[in-house]
Amino acid sequence: MNIRYTLNGARHALATAIVLSSLLGSNLTMAVEEPKFETLLKDEAFEIRRYPPLVVATTLVPGDMDAASSRGFRTIADYIFGNNTATPAGASAKIAMTAPVTVAPVVPAASAASSDMAAEQWQVQFVMPGQYRLDTLPRPKNEAVSLRELPARTTAVMSYSWLNSEAKVQQKTDELRAWMTARKLEPLSAPRLARYDPPWTIPMWRRNEIQIDIREP
Asked: Cα–Cα distance between 154 and 81 in angstroms, integer?
């Protein structure tokens, strides 16, 4: 492999990402709040984390994973961008974007289904910024958006990069479940796909995770 050409290709990809970011009104270096957690175990691409209680905005969307992800994202983005009531007088407020955005199949907890991608309904979820409590968040005007507080939880996580197809997400979910089985970890939730980056991020730099809540070992 010619290292000079590889470096030139990387520079070209970076320049392309910066141009796209500029056109879309985004800043690649902008800090985006992420949920805090405690790492209990790290095993290469796998982790066990402990999360504190979190406040989330959620919507349920029918369809396949890609269609539901897109529609659900737009629905909750509409809420945080101002389709809400923040004061008794009815004024709205903008809420800062956070990461990741998660999507999960709506299936029974610890489902043994052969394919999570066969789900007909999906839950799309944004974690709300830490400055808010459930009782201080603006109220959604769209009834499809609900607010709730998640209790503290322990979560098994597999991290990976690149693009997400249904087949890729199912493969990574199966790998995480196999890792959990080998360590006798009991699942307590359906798997969630967590995406941390905007869609114009270069594929090899994208941060993705599969997350499954577990009974703490």
From this structure: 31
**Cβ partners under 8 Å of residue 121, min gap 6:** 60, 61, 62, 68, 105, 106
Q: Is residue 190 within 8 Å of 171, Cβ to Cβ?
A: no
Average pLDDT over residues 130-134: 96
If one counts every other C-beta atom within 10 angstroms of the C-beta of residue 125, the result is: 22
Which of these, 128, 58, 61, lies nearest to 99 by C-alpha position? Answer: 128
Classify residue 139 as exposed, middle or buried by CB count within 10 Å of its CB (0-12, 13-18, 19+).
exposed
| DSSP state at residue 137 | S
Distance CA 97, CA 100 (A): 9
**Which pLDDT score is estimated for 30?**
54
Return the higher-pLDDT residue of 11 and 33: 33
